[in-house]
Design goal:
This protein is mostly helical. Helices cover 54% and strands 4% of the residues. It has one domain. Bound molecules: FE2/S2 (inorganic) cluster.
């Protein structure tokens, strides 16, 4: 039996990479949240957006927000496939046997039944995304010595913009959104606004084909924004101002 995939990587390469990346991201997100703040001048870390006041001094406001994007990703159809295979070996790859046999109950029992809430997490994550767009716009406005904000651009502004575009591509390529728009319809031409829905469904379908790519790129872009802000805060780098 072959132990290598068609591109000659061993079958365990992908599951192992996913375990490393998702575990690393989760540990970093918790660490960043525990820092209690993530802002530098006009830049606000996505882990702390929207800006909320914590009810207790010892409780990081990031925890009031993080459950939305993390819940959105944890219940995402693509990530489900990825972590079921990688963390639970359920099964670990195509053409590999199930390890849990009869005990497998899929998403019919707690805790995995929660994954059926994905469409609601999509709606909540869309609200958070609107705040991230607002933050990305603010990243293009810099205060002068007298406190007036002026339009400008710096490396940080561009990192914010790339991040929010990638997050939008990830959100709007969501399988649930595609289903909401047209997945449950038998006939577009006989439905209200069927033409517009069919067009929108077509666009979402094009984005949807690359959903795993947007999932990973947006994960790294969120990480990059937070790391960039922390490096600025620590004085280890200077923001490069273009104009
Ligand atoms: S399926 Fe991945 S975000 Fe909805």
């Amino acid at each position: 039996m072959s132990v290598a995939s068609s591109n000659e990587r061993p079958w365990w390469f992908e599951p192992l990479s996913i375990v490393v990346v998702l575990s690393g991201f989760s540990i970093y997100a918790i660490w960043a949240a525990l820092q209690g703040q993530g802002a530098y001048h006009n830049y606000l870390s996505p882990f702390f957006s929207p800006k909320l006041a914590s009810p207790f001094s010892w409780f990081s406001p990031a925890f009031l927000i993080l459950w939305v994007p993390l819940g959105f990703r944890a219940t995402c159809y693509y990530y489900r496939k990825a972590y079921y295979r990688s963390f639970f070996w359920d099964p670990p790859a195509c053409a590999r046997p199930e390890l849990r046999g009869e005990k497998y109950s899929g998403e019919t029992k707690f805790p995995f039944i929660i994954n059926n809430l994905h469409r609601y997490f999509f709606l909540l994550a869309t609200i958070v995304l609107a705040f991230l767009w607002y933050d990305a716009i603010l990243a293009f406005f810099f205060k002068d010595g007298s406190g007036n904000a002026h339009f400008g651009a710096a490396l940080g502004s561009l990192i914010f913009l790339i991040n929010v575009v990638l997050l939008s591509l990830y959100s709007f390529s969501c399988h649930s959104l595609r289903h909401i728009i047209g997945g449950k319809m038998d006939c577009f031409t006989c439905s209200l606004a069927g033409g517009a829905r069919h067009k929108t469904w077509g666009w979402v379908s094009i984005l949807n084909e690359r959903h795993p790519l947007w999932a990973w790129l947006s994960l790294f872009s969120v990480l990059s924004v937070d790391i960039y802000i922390r490096l600025l805060q620590a004085g280890l780098i200077q923001d490069v101002r273009f104009f």
